[in-house]
């Protein structure tokens, strides 16, 4: 008898699970399998990576650093099924395909792309669409895929059958369901709603958190002063759309860029808790090869923490090893890739480094003796709090201080003399996977999950998920031209006297900046309770899914993360009673299991590919007629 699975969400996460289902289906079965992909947005690319967005928007990964396929580095239970990375796909299409089928703009971009290019999101959309077609062509005998360009609005049990109701009418009767919807929209928080109400009463314009590509930026007037809260990737998109997207352009100006305005742009005053944009993505390759990871924060260190049963404090017990692991990646690249800049050979340094505690006096002495230039020593505090202690009497005096730090950060991330940044980046990816495993084990204290884990995610995003260097150069040009001003760290916002007001800890004496427009440049905080997704909302209302609520041992609520609870090992949904549903699964940023990215870098034993494999195999094991016993 044929069996069926529904994957709600046909973007890269859903397609990644589909690829792993196809890989393991011949081993696990059952014989005859239909997979329904449900998404109102284009299959393969999904909402975020769909073609229908500005051609100006770029990825924050280089062409050689993007893949959807497993390779020999991936340690998983399912079969490895290699496939081309973005860069390999582009080369093959140029050599043996028809680039012109992509249309003239994308064909020109494809012909110009290199391994170090940061491609447009539209070209990534083409790759992701091709990946889905490739996965479908590789399906094993007896397996097929059916696409549904609509929204799933409800899910119910009918005995052992899962009934998925579709927005355009009808329902699918399947044996298992995977929710792979990606980032979910949400109604405003109480604070955001209160801010919007005060703004409306005073005739102000407020854009709450949302996907920047979906924002109606026509409400931002030319020439207006606009307060922006948030300096991450959503901020970078906002800058692209409000300046180059309105006809401005950048011209070479010596080693820098000069902004030529169109007259349609606003003037932005932007801040955040850190006060700095995310660190630029490295523009170079490793000279010493991938560092041997994990070294200090792998199973030998993490497994005993898990076996202890907790409570474990991430900051006190894990961070010293996490920091040492990140530094290990940095110094492996420095000593082996730039040996002329150190005073010890690698074996002697590595042996001594391994013996010492990360924040010990002996470690500081070793680094000072072995690495003479302070620029060559990793400074995790500066990476996390780049404006710590920076103060200015007014906004104008602050600008050169912030630009100096941004420019130096950019220099180090594009100059191949500073490839240790990439060594640390690679180590952070390894650490991220182990932190996910530790968090999923349930041994972290509620306080640590509420505070330390949240800090780690923010630090990781700022250090490892930044924009391409060319975007940072553009941002500096806009700042020098007076179109973007940085408000500094510790930004605050309120409404008073008929205007938005904003200040920060970095500007000590000046009056607040006032404006009639405020943009919250970030994604909405995850919240199943506030989601606008009808399927998830209906499941939550019936108690079929539950939000992760962090409580002290005495029951005191520390934080509601808004994430839907899943079993960490395989993404199985956990309902309001704590029961695990045997045939419902979820994967993605709306779940309590944090996985770094829907696609990944090749050759990294990527966590996302390993987790997709675990979820897919659990789904197959849940089906009637599965041939292999579940592990």
Automatic annotation (TrEMBL):
InterPro entries: FAD/NAD-bd_sf, HpyO/CreE_NAD-binding, L-asp_N-monooxygenase_NS-form. It comes from the Bacteria. Residues 6-183 form the FAD-dependent urate hydroxylase HpyO/Asp monooxygenase CreE-like FAD/NAD(P)-binding domain. Coiled coil: none annotated. SUPFAM superfamilies: FAD/NAD(P)-binding domain (SSF51905). This is FAD/NAD(P)-binding protein. It comes from Pseudonocardia zijingensis. The lineage of its organism: Bacteria, Bacillati, Actinomycetota, Actinomycetes, Pseudonocardiales.
